[in-house]
Structure formats: C-alpha cells, structure tokens
Design brief:
The protein is an alpha/beta fold and 130 residues long. The chain has 5 helices and 6 strands. The protein has a single domain, classed as NAD(P)-binding Rossmann-like Domain (Rossmann fold, 3-Layer(aba) Sandwich), CATH 3.40.50. Strand 5, helix 4 and strand 6 form a beta-alpha-beta unit.
Length: 130
C-alpha cells in the first residue's frame, strides 16, 4: 500500500514508522525539514519537504499512485483543505483527516471526509477513568 502522510510531528512520525515497519511504501511530508528528525533511523520511506496544499509537492509525493492520504498537521484548515485536494482532485481512494475541533470534525465527517478528532477521543478516555 502506498501512503502519503502530511505532517511529521509526533503523530505523523509515529504513523509513518508503523506503516513503514509493516512494509508499506510511505512518503511523509512536512514544511519543516527538522521535523524529520522524529522519524526512527530504521525508516526506509521518503521524507519530503513540502505541503499537501502545493501541487508540486503532491507530484513529488506521487499522490497519483497513493492508496491512502493522511493529514495530521497542527492546523485543522490545512488538514481539511489537503484532504479535499487528495480526495476530489487526485482521487485518492482513502483519505483521513485529523481535526481537533469536535464541531468541525462532525461537520466534515457529515460531508463525507473520514475524520478523527483527538479532542473527542481523549475526552472519552478521560470520562472512562472517572
């Protein structure tokens, strides 16, 4: 499976490492070249300086061959826009978008995006502990 991940902070680097270790072809992109230091030394995928909002970066990431696109930057707006580009313009079969704001997450999910809200997940886990 070919996976393109936009965002190489804690979550993006962990996901990239996991998928790479499973044998998937992984490209992780970030606008900050220092973010790639979070990847383990065993990472065999591609680390690409760029953004999922830029056509040139997406071409370098081979978005046209991707089976999955995941957006996990710190910005909800960037994640949503990049996922819309991947889904509607590049026809990536599976697109996953992290959205911190629970209201926006629900709205975009209702519009057909596969979304994950860490805010809702953590609140649920905390509630289970009370």
């Amino acid at each position: 499976m070919k996976v393109v991940i936009m965002g190489c902070s804690r979550v993006g680097s962990q996901l990239a490492a996991m998928l790479d270790a499973e044998g998937h072809k992984v490209t992780v992109m970030d606008i900050d070249p220092f973010s790639f230091k979070k990847l383990p030394p065993t990472f065999k995928g591609t680390a690409l300086v760029g953004s999922g909002l830029e056509e040139e970066s997406l071409k370098k990431a081979e978005i046209g061959q991707a089976d999955v696109f995941v957006a996990v930057t710190q910005g909800d707006n960037r994640n949503v826009m990049a996922c819309q580009i991947a889904k509607h313009i590049h026809k990536v079969p599976k697109v996953v978008c992290r959205i911190y704001d629970p209201i926006r997450e629900e709205m975009y999910r209702n519009l057909g995006l596969l979304t994950v809200s860490p805010t809702k997940l953590v609140a649920k886990l905390l509630r289970e502990q009370i």
